[in-house]
Amino acid sequence: MPLRVHRPSLEKAIRRGSLASHLLTALGQFSALLLILGCLLATSVPLLGAEELSNHAITLNLLESRRKQQVAAAQKYQAFHGFKFTDRISESGITFADQIVDDAGKEYKAAHYDHGNGLAVADVDGDGMVDIYFTTQLGANQLWRNLGGGKFQDVSKEMNLRDGSWSGDATFADLNQDRFPDLYVVNMQGDNHYYENQGDKGFIDKTAAYFPKTPWGAMGVKFFDFNQDGLMDVYITDMHSDMTKGQTVEALNFRIEMEKTKSEAFCSVQWTEAYLQGSTNNIFGNAFYQNLGGGKFAEVSDRLGVETYWPWGVSVGDLNADGFEDIFVASGMGYPFRYGINPVLMNEGGKGFFGSEFLVGVEPRGDRRTEKPWFTLDCDGADKQHPECAGKSGKTVITGTLSTRSSAFFDLDNDGDLDVVTNEFNDRPQLLVSNLTEAKRVRSLKIKLKGVRSNRDGLGATVIVRAGGKRLTQFHDGKSGYLSQSSMPLYFGLGEATGVESVEVLWPSGKNRR
Question: Could you write out the DSSP letters of every residue in 12-68?
């Protein structure tokens, strides 16, 4: 029997009701809803005359429409985007490929506890040694103090940090600039929490004072100074708010207007207030808090244009070396959902961001792939009762869409510009090499910190570079992407500056050095 390739097509089984009944019993209502929804997304839902939504050619046509939209919209922006990323993974010699378990393929389950967990490190007590904050999806997160000599002590209780959120990630940042790093903890379903470090007195929950509304389904978080005013702003991605049936079905046509819209209208229809755990203090989508100074923040995500669809984590760096840091959002869900675009948000001189993933060659992917073989079924044998075998026979290959889980920025070819490396779900990485230095003259500065009184890597330090009459600020936390880390040397794009007037380091030990 020849091997046949099929896209997921469970629509008939779902319409008969047998699959829905089985799933509701076996997995629970919410998990079943996600699985049924995912199957619908990859089946023969009519779209622009297409017979199968997951058809590769149809997806490429939709991506081409988005590219044309983005090219037209970019005409009004000044930030340089006349460069390209090229995926050099095949030339790199890297043979690694992420692999899934059957629960993400042949025996698909809409499991939520497969997202992994991150940790955050900082010198929370100013003793020169880096402490560790662990996140968990079950139980409570924990802060472990570094005692030296390779020994640690759980100080969560005495430091008032008993956070029981469904957490995937957390990050430190010194928002009140007292040299004690504060902590932001994301929650994948519910309220995020911001804890202000009081030194030897522990932490105090000041979420309501700083961030009265937080994303409901947060996945990633990154502090950075987007407008170079010397104050740390924060960008938080929210993926779980995008998982309603109504919104996911509406996303089938890849309309940018839908992907740039918050999910509240869909969430309020599908989920009860009890399930949402009280939604009055939540944002159903990404959030961007601009630091106004004096402990005041303004939520400006829609004004800045940073809403995205199905985001995981966020990487930040100056991709065009103009002095303002840009954003890459790893996105997509994989099988059995439709292809998800990886947004590149170019910083328009601290005024906002504009989509540029098609402009700079991140989308469509260099090999123009949007899907791959996901798993194989024996529809005449052991797998004949599998829902994907309905109407099929013989050995059948089921395809799934590509999706990115995380990313990191660094200058991998040491040519003076930032490149991007991604980790994919059930696929090989992307090694996106920039040609910025070929497209324009690039002036940049790399700074690697080495602490003496502070921790040796300088984590928690703020670095201020003055060049060409401008002040450029970065906070050294080492974080990038979803549960990932970027290069330790801080990369400063200098724009048109021909030299650097000064470099100032605000060390976590309390020392300033120029």
Answer: HHHHHSHHHHHHHHHH-HHHHHHHHHHHHHTS---BTTBS-TT-HHHHHHHHHHHHH
Task: Quote the CA–CA distance of 22 and 153 in Å, as a whole number.
Answer: 47
User: What angle in degrees, to the nearest 10, is found between the helix axes of 18-27 and 29-41?
Assistant: 140
In which residue are the tokens 């599998």 written? 386
Structure tokens given for 383:
């797998």
Which SS3 state, helix, strand or coil, does residue 191 take?
A: coil
Q: Is the dihedral of CA 266, 213, 355, 171 positive or negative?
A: negative
Report whether 363 contacts 403 (CB < 8 A).
no
Residue 113 — pLDDT band, cuts 50, 70, 90? Answer: low
Tokens of 330: 């790893």
- Sign of the dihedral through C-alpha 377, 383, 388, 394: positive
Q: pLDDT of 268-280, one tens digit each?
A: 999 999 999 999 9
Long-range contacts of 186-189 (CB under 8 A, 24+ apart): 186/215, 186/218, 186/219, 186/220, 186/221, 186/236, 187/214, 187/218, 188/112, 188/115, 188/137, 188/217, 188/218, 188/219, 188/240, 189/216, 189/217, 189/240, 189/277
Rounded distance between C-alpha atoms, residue 392 and residue 329, angstroms: 38
**429 touches 90 (CB < 8 A):** no
For the question of whether the overall pTM of this predicted structure is more than 0.70, the answer is: yes
**Among all chains, which residue has been given the structure tokens 């005041």?**
296
Select from 419, 376, 472, 451 the least CA-distant residue to 1.
Answer: 376
Length of the chain: 514
Paired tokens of 479: 């974080």
Q: How far apart are CA 9 and CA 40, in angstroms?
A: 8
Alpha-carbon span 223 to 474, nearest angstrom:
9
Q: Would you state the pLDDT for residue 118?
A: 87
The position carrying tokens 């995380």 is 406
Tally the C-alpha atoms within 13 A of residue 147's C-alpha that lie toward its C-beta.
7
Phi, psi at 198, each rounded to 5°: -100, 20
d(C-alpha 293, C-alpha 232), whole Å: 9
Could you list the beta-strand ranges (E) of 34-168.
85-87, 119-122, 131-134, 142-148, 151-154
Give tens-digit pLDDT for 380-420.
999 999 999 999 999 999 999 999 999 999 999 999 999 99
pLDDT digits (tens, 9 = 90+) for 462-506: 999 999 999 999 999 988 888 777 657 999 999 999 999 999 999
DSSP-based helix, strand, coil % in the chain, nearest 5: 20, 30, 50
Question: Quick one: pLDDT band at residue 18, thresholds 50, 70, 90?
Answer: very low
Which amino acid makes up residue 287? A
Residue 159 C-alpha from the chain's centroid: 29
DSSP conformational letter for 50:
B
Q: How far apart are CA 66 and CA 400, in angstroms?
A: 21
Of the pLDDT bands very low, low, confident and very high (cuts 50, 70, 90), residue 52 is very low
